[in-house]
Structure of VOC family protein:
Amino acid sequence: MTVRLNPYLSFGGNAREAMAFYQSVFGGELTSSTYAEGGMSDDPAQGDKIMHAMLDAGPGVVLMGSDSPPGMPFDDGTRISVSLSGDDESTLRGYWDGLVQGGEVTMPLERAPWGDSFGMCTDKFGIGWMVNITGVPAAAQ
């Protein structure tokens, strides 16, 4: 079982360009999906925006990013979040439970359209966190 902690960058519409730039700097494999591919947008203007991109540039270098989701404001002050991901459900749920204490849940930790469990919160110190548990359906919560 694994758990990974890495930065997650938010962009105001230029995530594709930014992630390609980071790939040119760090190398590695870049994967991405759009809001249309994820079934997350009915707006054609938003459909080709990046819902999730991940640059895996080798041991210890993982960078994730996306364009701000439709309906969520883009704020320069919250452009970087911390992402926790992996398949160790009990460890990741324990981290989630600790992070939300005294903080605010932005998106409940529940089944996402891509099949994992996903949630977002801001801890009591104002730091944004995302937790993604690989392949764990909502029924297991």
